[in-house]
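INTERNAL AUDIT FORM
Audit reference: QA-55
Scope: verify that the stored structure record matches its stored sequence.
Auditor: D.O.
Record contents follow.
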Amino acid sequence: MKLITYKLTKMKILNIRSFKIDKNLRTVIGIGKFDGFHIGHQKIVKEIINLSHQLNCIPCVFTFRDYPFDTTLSLWDEKLEAFRENGIEICLWADFFEIHKLTPQDFLNMMKERCNMAGIVVGENFRFGFRREGDISYLKSWAVSGCVEVRVVKTVIIDNRVVSSSEIKRLIKNSDFFHASLFLGRWFTIEGSFIKGRGIGKTIGFPTINIDVRNKNSPLQNGVYACTVIYKGELFKAVAFYGSSPTFKSPLSLEIHIIEDKSIVVDEDEIFSIIPVKKIREIKRFSNVEDLANQIRMDVKEAMEILNSFNFDKILSSA
């Protein structure tokens, strides 16, 4: 699922404390963490664009660059790219600990002073200020006195589940990649570049490509997965190992074994996109390499059965 891309000037990225808009300009600003930029976030951004057009204002967002999540769905540069692609002209940010002690009133007054807001767009579960004391009712009451229009975007519900970043993380942890991707509006993907490994897989007949994962705090759990890999615009069927190997006592890693008779010329500057389709098994320790090789052989067979029934056209069309 993609939003309409508006042909605007290059998006400005500024810390809220160093920003003050020209007094002759006004903004419509969406406020949120936007982790994962899921379909609920996409609705908020659409509403920011719509309201900014109606009020002849600059479409903006305020978000956190650094927030104390245990796991994250998107990196900072990915979040910025999503804003940029979907028409946001100014991204204002703060690190969580810069402003986390501001009261709801102090936070809103800061935003008003620096952004000259004509409108605010938020989700219906929006909370803000120290200890999350501010809510929608508080926001609307404050907005009346400041002549600021408030638009509250309704929560998206799919299959009786609330679409939220925390729910998507839970789905990924439980290997429900179908619903996670449905909620994201795109395939859940792990990205990274090639790094040189120890070559153990090749010695037992299953050569692997070692990936330096970009998002070190992904909610993906340790395990062996049937997956698809997109590399240089081409799609491959693969088995992925994600986690720390108890057999070889290796640190956290992502290794992919291409299970088709296709050769890949690896370029260290190119990005691999790994799309988990289904978890095959948990990671376990093997007493010898023969047992490991036999298990991988079974993993490959199971992965092929899973992937042969998978709709690859959907992946290529959303890549």
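Auditor finding: record pair retrieved intact. The radius of gyration is 23 Å.
Action required: none
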